[in-house]
Design goal:
about 30% helix; alpha/beta; 2 domains; Nitrilase/N-carbamoyl-D-aminoacid amidohydrolase; two-stranded antiparallel sheet
């Protein structure tokens, strides 16, 4: 394979539904499989570990069943850092592959505070970043907290790929996608659940969104899509109409190119990994014609500003601001309160301010 060509991998699979250990093991197997087949970058579906909160399409939010599912989601969610991330990172290092993993993230010590998160892990097994979904969609709002800008970044894959990622509806957010384009993303992972609400065919919407996105960003887009397995068919539907709807879902993983073309896929229903060999040199001519994060724009007229970092539930003013003497130990403790829930916030120098 020429040095300017990389192999992309899109996962189309179901989790071991609401089972932390089983889904982590499955994710690691898929990573190793893709690495053995020469993939450089692999994208996973939204909320893959341990599942996406799909039950809100079928059960009332305040029902006993919905609370039962939500409790299981929290109990099987991952923490960053934590053993689940360590296992996935070890698999990424073994396979030598850059991983974008969808998961439900739990804040340590706060089992009711969950985020819809993408974790970015490089081929050396290093966790290089995380992105928390900016605005949870539909039923996600009942269990997921709005995210921050810490993970609205682009990451080096180590093989020429500049990797970004968003989940589901975020891929239609023109401001968020431009912020990534402006940072030089050339491989974008679009992570999707197994289905939308009843009456909406996700398999028709994804190509519309991501062909346009690939053309706009002049990048390759990996569509990683969840599926519905037998366990989910047993637990989720309430009636025959819902069961019939779920049985018809599945399929659609694909890879889009910078002209808006479909390079690989869409996959038929079922589980598997879709591969596409793409040339990074193939991005040059499209970007010569239109580069919205570069020459093909008017930065003097239009701009996008990304506010730095995240937010903290508690801020303690420094001792000199309140006229108190605080010991070194106390200073250390209060400093920790201003961090972004265990993840380093962007400094003011890291503010992404760019034009659109």
């Amino acid at each position: 394979m020429p040095s300017n060509t990389i192999r992309l991998a899109a996962v189309q699979a179901a989790p071991v539904f609401l089972n932390h250990d089983g889904t982590v093991d499955k994710a690691c197997r898929l990573i190793r499989e893709a690495g053995a087949k020469g993939a450089s970058i692999i994208g996973f579906p939204e909320g893959f570990i341990p599942a996406h909160p799909l039950w809100y399409h079928f059960y009332p939010a305040s029902s006993r069943e919905a609370f039962h599912f939500a409790k299981r989601l929290s109990e099987n969610a991952i923490e960053i850092p934590g053993p689940a991330v360590d296992a996935v990172a070890a698999a990424a290092k073994e396979a030598g592959i850059f991983v974008v993993m969808g998961c439900c993230e739990r804040v340590p010590g706060r089992p009711g505070t969950l985020f819809n998160t993408l974790v970015f892990i490089d081929g050396e097994g290093r966790v290089v970043g995380r992105h928390r979904k900016l605005v949870p969609t539909l039923g996600e709002q009942l269990v997921h907290t709005p995210g921050d800008s810490v993970g609205l970044k682009v990451y080096h894959s180590g093989q020429g790929g500049m990797v970004s990622g968003l989940m589901c509806g975020e891929n239609s957010n023109a401001l968020a996608t431009f912020a990534l384009d402006a940072q030089g993303a050339n491989v974008h992972v679009a992570s999707w659940p197994s289905h939308f609400n009843m009456g909406v065919d996700m398999r028709e919407i994804i190509p519309i969104v991501t062909r346009s996105l690939a053309y706009q960003m002049k990048a390759y887009v990996i569509n990683a899509i969840g599926t519905v397995n037998e366990q989910m068919l047993i637990e989720l539907p309430v009636n025959d109409e819902q069961r019939e709807f779920l049985e018809a879902q599945g399929g659609g993983a694909s890879v889009m190119g910078p002209w808006g073309e479909i390079i690989a896929g869409p996959m038929e229903a079922g589980e598997g990994i879709l591969y596409a060999d793409v040339s990074l040199d193939g991005l040059t001519v499209p970007k010569l014609i239109q580069d919205f994060g570069g020459h093909y724009n008017r930065f003097d007229l239009l701009h996008v500003e990304v506010q730095p970092g995240g937010y903290s539930p508690l801020r303690v003013p420094p001792a000199d601001a309140v006229g108190e003497n605080v010991s070194g130990l106390e200073r250390s403790n209060t400093a920790g309160l201003t961090s972004s829930r265990g993840w380093p916030a962007l400094s003011s120098g890291d503010t992404a301010s760019s034009s659109s």
